Structures are given as structure tokens and as C-alpha cells.
Amino acid sequence: MQHHGVAAWPRDDQSPLQPLAHDLEVDSCVVGLGGSGLAAVHALLDLGQRVAAIDSIGIAPGAAGRNGGFLLAGTAAFHHDAVAALGRERATALYRQTLGELDAFEADTPDVVIRRGSLRIASDGAELADCIRQFEAMRHDALPVERYEGPEGEGLLFPFDGVFNPGWRCDVLAARAIARGALLHAPTHADAILPGEVQTGPHRIRCRHVLVLVDGGLTRIFPQLTGVVRTARLQMVATAPTGQRTWSRPVYYRHGYEYWQQLEDTSIVVGGFRDAGGEPEWTEHAGPGDAVQARLDAFVRDHLRVEVPITHRWAASVGFTSGVLPFVGGVGEGVWAAGGYNGTGNMIGAICGRGIAELAVTGDSETLRHLRD
Ligand SMILES: Cc1cc2nc3c(=O)[nH]c(=O)nc-3n(C[C@H](O)[C@H](O)[C@H](O)COP(=O)(O)OP(=O)(O)OC[C@H]3O[C@@H](n4cnc5c(N)ncnc54)[C@H](O)[C@@H]3O)c2cc1C
Predict the structure, then answer these.
(1) What is residue 12's predicted lDDT score, i.e. its pLDDT?
(2) pLDDT digits over 5-29, tens only?
(3) Once rounded to an integer, what is the mean pLDDT over residues 173-178?
(4) Ligand 1: which residue has its CA nearest to atom 21?
């Protein structure tokens, strides 16, 4: 049986949320219960805020619960490209910050994080040369990297990277937030976001700070960010268990356009081909599309040489910016937003969620020092 539109990740027993059925008055309201929004909720609680948080659907129903599960240090750009875009000092500091975030993820939710490193495998000679440039830049900046050659091909090994079950972590963070006193409501859609108020159906959440942690679809809420952030669809498939362990580490291939990992039950989750899908992938539609799915099928069969059936096909929305950094900042009086993690928001999104909470409440954020101009 094939699950269309359903991610393969097993989920924790979700904390059953209720839609908001009355007005609320709190200090801060977070819109979006993905990994970034939940990081913001906890940071706001740490800062002593009374917090409400809402999601149109539930806990991590979008990219945060339906992604590839890679925990890669650095930004979406490989280190040498990040150095070219941001300067050596800033790119290196950001890389170190994400390594620290990885440690924090592991310490915080050890049951859902596995750290055996990750591989970047070159798809051709030109990419191998690019791997070597990345290796040299990382070694120059004393960042952890090794040259790699193995059954997957040739490229680089990042020994401290990891993988996790993304939705499960969000389920855990949501349950903890509720236990700490945060008011989580879903399905509850933010119809309008105004200074000091979030409108949802007939109800109002009155608050001093509104934090919008929506990665894909950010311009639906803030049309003024059109041209700053653009929404794309990323697609994945999962296979039945293969019955044998072939890959012990997650693999990033063809500049990261394709990526896969083998789960504990020996099934494989594989994503990619956004570029091959062309213009139709710049969409807010978050369901799987035939053209990219067909490319994923062929990749599983011909490149990975996996012959067990595909069991799951799914997609979700993410935000892209035109540069290396996400958008993170103010979008109105007391209204803050972050998104545009360029397809790798598991850690940068959490950093931005925490940072924007600090920025909103204290007016400054050490966490965002390297992420904001
Ligand atoms: C297929 C795929 C594979 C990926 N693989 C990786 C990977 O391996 N590693 C990695 O680091 N990143 C990966 N990413 C990117 C990563 O998943 C995202 O960058 C990250 O999850 C963004 O999390 P978020 O919490 O900011 O946003 P989201 O998960 O998009 O959450 C935003 C939430 O806001 C809610 N919402 C939106 N509008 C409203 C509204 N008006 N009112 C109320 N709620 C609203 C949505 O329902 C949603 O739950 C992948 C993404 C996809 C789609």
C-alpha cells in the first residue's frame, strides 16, 4: 500500500490540541508550531513570558515534521561558498554556532537524534573539485571535515553531523511547552496579524509581541516580503524496509539536490530533484507532484539500486531567500518573523526562533549576531 501525501516518519503520541475557542491575553503569541516556532515558545518561556502559540493544522504538520531529518552543521551554502558570501569570520562563527546547536539538540532530545556524521558525495568530477575546495576552506578554519571514499562514492565526511526524527522532536517540544504553561492551540489559523493582536476566526489573541515562525508561505502572511522570501515545494519518497543495512550515514548528493538516509528499520527516505522540476516547484501547493516523483522513483531504482516498493510519497513547503542567510527581523510594531532557511532549516530555524524571541522581548539577541546584518 502506498501513502500519498503522508510522511514516513513515525510520530509520538501527539498532545491533543484544541482550537482556540475564546479570546486570550498573553505577553507573546507565536504563529507556527514547527521546529522554529516551538524553539521560540521555549525561549519566550525562559524569558518569563506568558505564551500562546497557534498552528493552522497541528504540531509540525509542515516541513518541520516532514523533512529529510538531516542535521547538518553550517548554512544551506557549503562552507567555502558561505565564506565567499559572508566573509570568513562570520561564516566560520555561524558554522560553529550550528555545531553547538547540534550538541543542544542531542542533549535536549537524545532519543530522537543519532550522530554518526554525514557524507557529501560528488556526482561528477566538477563536484569533486568543489568538495576539495570545501575541504580546504573548512580545514583552514579548523572546522571538522575529512576526505571520504567508500561505497557511496567520493566526497567529504562531516563527523559531527546527525539525523533525527523531525516530527517526533516537535511532539516532545510541544508536550514540554504545555507542561511549562504555554497555551498551544490547533487547528487555529491566524487570519490577520496586527500590532498587539492576532485575529483567528471570531477570536483575538491580545499580546505585546507576535512572532511568526512560518518558513514556506511567509509571503502569504506578509506580502511585503515578496522578493525577499520565495516559497518552494520539496518532495520525498520512502521505501519499504530493504532488509539489509547499506548506508550508515545520511548522504547529500549532487550539491545537496538529492539526499537520502536509511532508517533503523532499513527503509530509505529520499528527497530531491527540486531543480529538475523547474518552475512548477516554486509553488505553495504542498502535495507531491508527478514529474519530481517520477525522478525520485528512477533515482531509487537506478542510482541507489533499491528494488523494494515505494511506500510513502510526500512534499512540504519551504522558503528560499536570494542569499545564504534567512530572513529574520521585524515586520511591524511588535511583530517579528523568520523564515527562508533555503531548504535546511532544522537547526538554523531553531536558532532563529530562539533569537527572535530574545529580540522581541529584550530588544537584542546575541543568538542572531551572525545571522542579521
Ligand atoms: C521534503 C523536505 C526535506 C527537507 N529536509 C531537510 C533536512 O534534511 N534538514 C534540514 O535542516 N532541513 C530540511 N528541510 C527544511 C526544513 O524542514 C524547514 O526549513 C524547517 O522545518 C522549517 O521549520 P519551521 O518551523 O520554520 O516551518 P514549518 O515547518 O513550515 O512550520 C510552519 C507552521 O506554520 C503554520 N502556519 C502557516 N501559516 C499559518 C497561519 N496563518 N496561522 C497559523 N499557522 C500557520 C503551518 O501549518 C506550519 O505548521 C526540508 C524540507 C522539506 C520540505
Answers:
(1) 80
(2) 888 998 887 678 999 999 999 999 9
(3) 97
(4) 64
- CA 182 to chain centroid, in Å, comes to 22
- Fold designation for 230-320: D-Amino Acid Oxidase; Chain A, domain 2 (3.30.9)
- Average pLDDT in the 97-115 region? 97
Beta carbon of 286 within 6 Å of any ligand 1 atom: no
The residue type found at 111 is D
pTM over cut 0.70: yes
The response to whether residue 335 sits with its C-beta less than 6 Å from ligand 1 reads no
Band of the pLDDT at 364, cuts 50, 70, 90?
A: very high
* Angle in degrees, 0-180, between the axes of helices 345-362 and 35-46, rounded to the nearest 10: 30
- Of 3.50.50.60, 3.40.50.720, 3.40.50.1100, 3.60.40.10, the CATH number of 19-66+166-227+323-362 is 3.50.50.60
The rounded Å distance from CA 211 to ligand 1 centre is: 15
Q: Which of 270, 344, 347, 356 to mutate to test the pocket of ligand 1 (most atoms within 8 A of CB)?
A: 344
Q: Which of 103, 7, 71, 40 is nearest to 337 (CA)?
A: 40
Per DSSP, the residues of 208-249 read SEEEEE-STTHHHH-GGGBTTBEEEEEEEEEE---SS---SS
90 has a pLDDT exceeding 90: yes
Indicate whether residue 58 lines ligand 1 (CB < 6 A).
Answer: no
Question: CB of 34 closer than 6 A to ligand 1?
Answer: yes
